[in-house]
Amino acid sequence: MNISFVGAGVGSLYAALLLTKRNPSLHITIYEKEARVGGRLNYVEFENGAKVDEGPTIVLLPSKLKQQLIEAGLSEDEVELLEVDPLYRLRYQDGTSFYKYRDIERQADEIERTFGEGDAFRRYMSQKKEEYQIGFNTFLDRSYASKTELFEPKLLLLLMRLKAYESAHGNMKRFFEDERLRVAYSLQTLYIGGNPYATPSLYGLIPYREQEEGVWYVKGGYFSLATTMENELKRRGVRFVMNATVNRVHVTDGVANGVTVNDEYVPYDAVIVNGDFPLMERLVDGVTPKAYEPSSGTLLLYFTVKGELDLPIHQFDLPNDFEGSMRTIFEDGKLSEYPAMYTFNPSRMDETLAPDGTSVLYVLVPVPRKLEREDIEAQGTIDHLVGRIEVLLPDFRERVIEMKVRTPMDAERFGLFEGGSFGIAPKLSQSAAFKPQARPFSKIERLYAVGASVHPCGGVPIVMIGSQLLVKKMEEEMGAIHRDDTRSVSSM
């Protein structure tokens, strides 16, 4: 049986690992428009040879990730996970700062010392533990055959119990009095491109799980995970075709039966698309593209600098008026005068990323989409951000060896839907049963989908859950690939 993947993102790589582990004689071809695999899981390389993650940096759900890799046939020692503790530091414009720790009692003490709400934090963790199990098992780790499934009385009651009608930030008002704490435990919706003041509280379970399992780091950079997967797939005989543009997914009599690659038709028994789904569905014969709302854009600055940086591995630098900043970005479509800024200093725990005597630094700021570098420089945003780094590192500007910039328009040119960094926006009407599924079109057989814009959500381990749901769906519908994969599906 011949199967093709359109796009070599982590969703494709992991799904291909699962398929080849269970069905070694499958013939799989992965087409990728870039010269490297990984999609968002990529790296930036500097002239001095230093590297830093281009996209995702924070490894959440480490136990799930380890389990997933083992299930796909990779040994634990092939991907080295390092715990980051403290998780990160939060600094506020008013001068307040505090750390997040994995240890619950240490965290409660830190919150009590800073805000006087240690018991409120304990109550938060207790309640969210129960809600997480409901949310994960009921809504995340499953597929939906139709939108109506979400309206089953049992699921509706659970949604009400989880208070999915509240925003992530609004839900924190039930726990914390101090606005800075409410922000600290709702800003994580930005990890998936959502406004904390509008994103459903269902996604507010992210900070709970982050606190429960901690924040982790892949030695060598998160991007190295994609390379590890690629190497194993090549060992198993999977074929990669790089710098390959897929122009069309062919559908005949309701069955996907091939792709046009670089203007040449190639037949396949099944096709899996793994780019941003709103762009992928435009390739499919007979499909009228739907309207989707993209996630937020990001401005990314990458530095290689002289010496070590006296910064935490992860840090959030937040404005006094966080709500106003989010409104400016998400509703007004303008750059914030004092934006939330995330910094990632991986050289503090990974000496392999940069030459001796140098370090790398990653800076991310949520911004509106459709911005070019000149738009951002006209507002003085880059200079403003460097100035804020200099408050902590007074000689930072002089130590910079090289800086690279990635704007929302760079992301759009790369292939991210309308320049949104995280796929489609995580709003209720684009979640769970309302999100594209592993089998996205009920009237088209043998066409499947995976990725950040496909259920369940963005984030590397979550996209890999999507890969598991995809493979399960393929085996349900094409069961013979498991029983006798030497026959072509098209002959059944």
Automatic annotation (TrEMBL):
Keywords, sorted A to Z: Carotenoid biosynthesis, Oxidoreductase
Descriptive protein name: Phytoene desaturase family protein
InterPro entries for the chain: Amino_oxidase (IPR002937), Carotenoid/retinoid_OxRdtase (IPR014105), FAD/NAD-bd_sf (IPR036188)
Enzyme Commission number(s) of this protein: 1.-.-.-
A GO molecular-function annotation: oxidoreductase activity
Transmembrane segments annotated in the record for this chain: none
Similarity section: Belongs to the carotenoid/retinoid oxidoreductase family. CrtN subfamily.
Record bears the keyword Lipid metabolism: no
Annotated pathway: Carotenoid biosynthesis
Keyword Oxidoreductase: yes
SUPFAM superfamilies in the record: FAD/NAD(P)-binding domain
Pfam family of the protein (one): Amino_oxidase
Residues in Amine oxidase domain copies: 13-457
Span of the signal peptide: none
